[in-house]
Specification:
Blueprint (H helix, E strand, L loop, with lengths): L1 H22 L1 H8 L15 H24 L4 H26 L4 H24 L1
Helix pairs in contact: 1-3, 1-5, 2-5, 3-5, 4-5
Amino acid sequence: MGFLAVIIAAAAGFGFGAVWYMALANPWMEAAGITAGPDGKPMGDSPTPYIMAALAMLLVAGMMRHSFALSGIDTLGKGLVSGLGIGLFFISPWIMINNGYGGRPFKLTLIDGGYATFGCAIIGLVLTFF
């Protein structure tokens, strides 16, 4: 059941990312310096980032499940709060460091950090549902 929970949690995090970045597509492309084509989609769009994102979600969900099991995080509330904490206090600061050294706009950090925070919260919630 643990492996299935990881797959479902990863899919939920990935799905949330699709909604998050569709809603923030224009500000994100502007902040990331991505040029849009005439159809409004990024030029030179490739499936590679989507594949990498799906694999990353599996890794994140798998490690969160492992950490939750070792820490006794076993209720929906604990999963939600722990996921928020992981996204807000582990992943988002790392994104801020990378974007800061890369000279990227802080707006990009807010968009990507927001996804990390709420995406991890969703993953945590789903993991503790099982």
